[in-house]
UniProtKB/TrEMBL annotation:
The keyword Metal-binding applies. HAMAP family: MetAP_1. Monomer. The gene is map. This is Methionine aminopeptidase. Residues 46-278 form the Peptidase M24 domain. One of its GO terms (biological process) is proteolysis. One of its GO terms (molecular function) is metal ion binding. Its cofactor is Co(2+); Zn(2+); Mn(2+); Fe(2+). Binds 2 divalent metal cations per subunit. Has a high-affinity and a low affinity metal-binding site. The true nature of the physiological cofactor is under debate. The enzyme is active with cobalt, zinc, manganese or divalent iron ions. Most likely, methionine aminopeptidases function as mononuclear Fe(2+)-metalloproteases under physiological conditions, and the catalytically relevant metal-binding site has been assigned to the histidine-containing high-affinity site. Keywords: Aminopeptidase, Hydrolase, Metal-binding, Protease. It is an enzyme of class 3 (hydrolase).
Length: 286
């Protein structure tokens, strides 16, 4: 007989807390629960919060400068300089061969768009700028959509509904609910508008590393996935496509990073880093 190793353990020499008992009760029912290291300490939370302030400032700097005719490399330059000025490190730079400090994904590029000197923003483009800052060893991750000049009503709606998906997903994230509750709420809202929810990429735990448990899918069934417990830090970052949910890797990208919508229709994404509290989530990247 093979005994299944428990994921949750109480602190040796201490009586189980109310949280310990709740988590163990879910685990006894066969639910996937976090390991104790996924519950951030108050000191770690403050470190992630500081990283969130810098990350937000970086995206604010992009918002102040972004315009028609700007190259995506200029966006990268702004982010790199902001990190230098604020004693931060861009997590993307040299991550598994990624060559830049930020991701700039235009129109049909779902994510991981690489900034380029010869790629210029045009009137009507929609672009996602995805930034992760490391400050004193702590990570914060967020992205925003920008509409360049005046675009079509269809693209405007896609950007708006995608932001609503992020907000609805965050509302579904309650203490002692499940990751699947987030994805279920997002999928329901996106598909109500006829959009596809990308399934090949997901949100994730974050804070002490770039990518931690749990995987935060943006589709699926309520009551599934990992139990969400106060002290966990994770991203929600729905990628919503105007057409099919399917995607492909751009064969022309020499670095092997850029992801394109399967039908090459536009895609949008919004992202925040969230802290689970006793009362719901707190945004750490406002």
């Amino acid at each position: 007989m093979i005994l299944k190793k428990k994921r949750w353990h109480c602190i040796k020499g201490q009586e189980p807390t109310e949280m310990d008992l709740k988590i163990m009760a879910f685990e006894k029912k066969g639910k996937l629960v976090p390991t104790r290291d996924l519950i951030k300490t108050p000191e770690q939370i403050e470190g992630i919060r500081r990283a969130g302030v810098v990350n937000t400032g970086c995206l604010d700097a992009v918002a102040d400068a972004i315009h028609v005719g700007m190259s995506t490399q200029e966006i990268d330059d702004i982010c790199m300089q902001f990190c230098k000025d604020n004693n931060a490190t861009p997590a993307c730079l040299n991550y598994e061969g990624y060559p830049k400090s930020v991701c700039t994904s235009i129109n049909e590029v779902v994510c991981h768009g690489i900034p380029k000197h010869d790629e210029f923003l045009q009137e009507g483009d929609i672009i996602n700028v995805d930034m992760t800052c490391i400050v004193d060893g702590y990570y914060a991750d967020a992205s925003r959509m920008f509409i360049i000049g005046k675009t079509t009503p269809e693209k405007e709606k896609l950007v708006k509904v995608t932001k609503e998906c992020l907000e609805i997903g965050a509302q579904a994230a309650k203490p002692y609910s499940f990751v699947g509750d987030i994805g279920h709420a997002i999928q329901k809202h996106a598909e109500k508008h006829g959009y596809g929810v990308v399934r090949d990429l997901c949100g994730h735990g974050v804070g002490l590393d770039f990518h931690e448990e749990p995987e935060v899918l943006h589709f699926g069934y309520a009551g599934t996935g990992m139990l969400l417990v106060p002290g966990m830090v994770f991203t929600i970052e729905p990628m919503i496509n105007m057409g099919t949910w399917k995607v492909f890797l751009d064969a022309d990208d020499p670095y092997g990073w850029e992801i394109i919508t399967g039908d090459e229709q536009p895609s949008a994404q919004w992202e925040h880093t969230f802290l689970m509290t006793d009362h719901g989530v707190e945004i750490l990247t406002h």
